[in-house]
Design goal:
With about 70 residues, this protein is mostly helical. The protein has one domain (about 1-65). It is about 80% helix and about 0% strand. It contains 3 helices and no strands.
């Protein structure tokens, strides 16, 4: 337990070493093209829908096989 505490303490000290005064306010925020966001959403939610459809289809096949011995 003590090793974990000291490891965490060293981590915090190293984070403080990299911290700058007001560093977050000076950094420019990167911009993202809206088409990338839309494309990501289509691919992400399309993949989820496709997976759900595959699970539903396999469940229907399994039920049909159980019903016909």
């Amino acid at each position: 337990m003590l090793k974990t505490f000291y490891g965490f303490l060293i981590f915090l000290v190293s984070c403080l070493a990299y911290a700058e005064e007001g560093g977050a306010a000076d950094v420019a925020t990167p911009t993202v093209d809206p088409i990338v966001v839309v494309l990501f959403g289509v691919v992400f939610f399309g993949g989820i829908a496709y997976f759900a459809w595959l699970v539903w289809r396999n469940e229907q096949k399994r039920k049909a096989e159980e019903g016909n011995p």
